[in-house]
Design brief:
The chain is mainly alpha-helical. 74% of the residues lie in helices and 0% in strands. Helix 4 crosses helix 15 and helix 11 packs antiparallel against helix 12. The protein is globular and about 75 Å long.
Length: 365
Amino acid sequence: MSIVKAVYEALVKVINFYVLVRDKLSPGWSTKNSSRVKEWKLMAYAFSKSKIGVLGGMIVFVVTLLAIIGPLLAWEPYWEYKVVEDPELWYHPPCIPPWCSGYPLLGTDEWGRDIISLSFYGFRISFVISLFVVFLGAPLGILLGLVAGYKGGLIDEVIMRLTDIFIAFPGLILAIAFASVFPQRIRAFLEANTLLRDFLSFIFGLRPNEYAQLAAILSVWVAMVIVWWPGYARIVRGSVLSVREQPFIEAAKLVGLPTRKILIKHVLPNVLSPILVMMTFDLATATLFAAALSFLGLGPQEPVPELGYLISKAGNFFPERTAHIVLYYGTILLVIALGWNLLGDALRDVLDPRTRRSIEFREGG
């Protein structure tokens, strides 16, 4: 079975499962939405024909899997400093059999920790931060964009001028400013809310007593959410301006549907395609953005193995002793960003009706 066919069949099974669930919840749903289901399957076919899309999807799948089970796969705890017992482990170079044995394959960091084992924790931290940033920052921008584009007038002016203020400041500089003032406040909040602290520690794959470093991670996350929404507000507002003039929107107004239902059921589905593509690209950007803040010292500190911070520490002895560490962790960040970008590039084509129709015509419908 070819990869194209395997990917297509897997996606169709997912669609069929969703349709089955919707039919259980709302009998007759598949009959009413047969054209939509057919369109989804055409999207699945178009995606399966995209080599870069399949490659990006495979990378994202592996990264997601490692983020979920990574801490369970790590064979060394990140909080153990083995260099105390064996000074030879201080930035030990790669140990490749049969020329070397008894030491980690890709070497150790300054505390004697296996850098491969640390990376499994790093996958979880980077993935969760990027996921939280995009899935919390995007809805804020989407909501403001929907309201601004649909209402227009003074509301549009106020929201867009606020958006312009945030866009006028460089995102990284603004995030640095916010990330510098949040940690102490978040730490005090976590100290007073042990259940939330334990839950977030589990989500990030950390020990509960690392709440001071967890506060630093959350400060980076909050700072990024604050600067992340303006792009979505602009994109959505521009799309809504064209959609709101369509006849079906006027019909919805005439039958007396409230604004909330019009925005959610009629406007949002018609501006969703560029949002999904943008969110996919932003998952790559958020991963690198969070690593950059940690590289600058605004993220977690010892012993938390955040990828940007690990690269920052290794940079103090680069390239004499740490070239392999910088290269390894840098490659991980590159692959994560590459996977999301390839997937987003494919989705941009798949969600374009003209592209789908050309594929349908070329393949004989």
